[in-house]
Each structure stands twice: as C-alpha cells, then as structure tokens.
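Notes from the 1:1 (GR / supervisor)

We went over the backlog. Supervisor wanted to see one worked example end to end before approving the batch request, so GR pasted a single chain during the call. The sequence is below; no edits were made to it. Supervisor asked that the structure be written out right there so they could see what the output format looks like.
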Amino acid sequence: MRLTILGCSGSIPGPGEPASGYLLEADGFLLAVELGNGTFAELQARHDPFDLGALLFTHLHPDHCADFSALTVLRRYHPKPPYDVCARRLPVHAPRDAAGRLANAYAPNETELAETDLSDVFAFHALRPGTTVHIGPFEVWSLPVDHPTEAFGIRVSHGGRTLAYTGDTGPCAALDRLALGVDVLLAEATWTHAPGRPGGVHLSGTQAGALARRAGAGRLLLTHVAPWSDRAAVLAEACAEFPGAVLAEQGASYLL
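Structure output shown during the call:
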C-alpha cells in the first residue's frame, strides 16, 4: 500500500495547508479517505479525479468532507468525462446519513433541497460497526469512535500490511482494537495534552503516542494538528510515549 497525504490540517485548513484528505493505492486502485477543505485541488495535482475507485468518509464534519461538493460538480458537469459517470457511479462508504447530508451541502438553493439526489453519480454504502468490507483490493474494518457526530476509525489491510486510521476521536476502547499490531497508525493529534481539554472530541500528542505504544504499532504518523497548536510540542509529546513518531506532511507519500 502507498499512503499519500493530500491534507492534514486539523479542524480547519491552515495557511496553504488543506484539511484532512488521504489516498491509499494498491494494485492500481485508488481509494480516497476524507476529502476536506482544499484537498480536491491537491488530488487534481496528482491524479485524474475520475481515476478514483472509491471514496470513504469516517465522519461528515466539513474539514473531512467539504470538497465532496466540488467532486460532484466535476462528475456531473465535466464536458468530456472519460467514461459514462452515471453508468459507473463512484462508491462512497460513509456514515449512514451521508447521502442526505452531502446532498444538503450540494443543493443549489432551498427550493431544490428536497429534490437533490446524488445517486446519479455516486453509490452510497453505510459503514457498519465491526463489519469488514472489501473496497477494491483493500479489506476495511470500521468501529465507532468518540466524537460529537457519528464517526468511525478504520483498519485497512492489503497484502499482509495493515494501516489503522483513528479519524477524529477522543480516547476510547475502539482505538486499541483498531490499532492492535498494525504496521502503521495514522493518528489524529489535534492539540497538546492539558487538563480541561473537552472529552470525546480529539486526541493529544500524548494520547496518540500512548495508543501506538499500547497497540504495538510499527510506525506512528501524526495528523490533524490544528493550525493553532504547536506542532513541535505535539510531536515531542508523542515521541515521549512512542519514540520515532513523525508528523505527517502534506504531499508526502509513505510506502507501507
């Protein structure tokens, strides 16, 4: 598997830094995981968006899915798509209310809101807790995590290699199950560790590092650091728990 970082800014895009977006590639198949603010431009700089084989959203906060509307415009209105996009609807794996919520975000006005239906170019599939789905060459297992909206962490396997991605979450038991023994843990670390942080929202650098240590992960990549957080301090916290942790970098690719 190859992991490419389209964006890794936490909660909002930062100056010149898109929000959450990742690509997983294997056997010629391209899976996008998240498509937050600014990531669609980064995707186009690297690939023809029509080459996407599937799209997965862990949850539906804008910093993880805002650019879905731009992808919809492309698939519906590009004058010369390389194939019949209606006949080849893009699979979208997401929380159960994704079709309606993403249609609401795309609807051109209030009058047309009730009539907006994106199933002409997308095929929506609800993520089901504890269920493994095959997406192209990948096996994807998801579990609910602790966040203010329905949200999932995922574990992706291919060719004997495994990647766990926390999505957005506070500490919870599901993370230890998802991350156990993985080759690579892609963990959000929005802020530094401090008393008074709200529960059930995000991980600190300390919590991300401790998760990787407990799980016996091979590598730890930190993502979703908020623009107002001290990246060096977040990394130092994680390394104190899991030496060798690194910050994911926009545009970087990692062979897993």
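Supervisor's comment: The radius of gyration is 18 Å.
Batch request approved.
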